[in-house]
Amino acid sequence: MRAVIQRVKRSSVTVDGEVVSETGHGFNVLLGVEKNDTQEEADYLAGKIARLRVFEDENGKMNKSITDVGGSILAVSQFTLLGNASKGNRPSFIDAEAPERANALYEYFMQALADNGVSEVKPGVFGADMTVEIIGDGPVTILMDTRTMRK
Predict the structure, then answer these.
(1) Catalytic site residue 6?
(2) Which one of the listed residues 6, 23, 27, 79 is annotated catalytic?
């Protein structure tokens, strides 16, 4: 699994001109599910994100997690995170998981975030053409890939 975690002041998803999901202070998480990803990887990634200390403490240091500050997460499934443009200029998405299985792991991942103490987890719309509005805070952007994190 690959994730782009952005600390945000607010974030929203719009489909067909209608805001379908939005959050306030917290994270926008773009999630790519790769072939052969597992629930174990989703659990690991969700735990890392829930404990990621990138929110300021009383001394102005990035020392608090999303659970410490009571922040929310907008999680958006994004298969294009698995695009490989190493050959030519048109990315290949051959490493992306099939939609049915990817959606199941995306749903599982969101539940794992909640199970790790994130007070509010909002979804995007799986498979939809979405407009994602991200009002960044910092900016703070962290990349995580379960294939490389546990080596």
Answers:
(1) no
(2) 79
Query: Which residue among the candidates 80, 111, 131, 141 is catalytic per the annotation?
Result: 80
Integer angstrom CA distances of residue 4 from 57, 87, 130: 23, 23, 17
- 133: buried, middle or exposed (CB in 10 Å: 19+, 13-18, 0-12)? middle
Between the alpha carbon of residue 79 and those of residues 28, 76, 131, the distances in Å are 15, 10, 15
List of domains in the chain: 2-141 (3.50.80.10)
Enumerate residues 6+ apart whose C-beta is below 8 A from 60: none
Summarize pLDDT for 23-42 with one digit per residue, the tens.
999 999 999 999 999 999 99
State how far the Cα of 10 lies from the Cα of 7, in Å rounded to an integer: 9
Per the annotation, the verdict on 27 as an active-site residue is: no
Q: pTM for this one? A: 0.95
Of 42, 38, 34, the C-alpha closest to 96 is: 34
Annotation marks residue 109 as catalytic: no
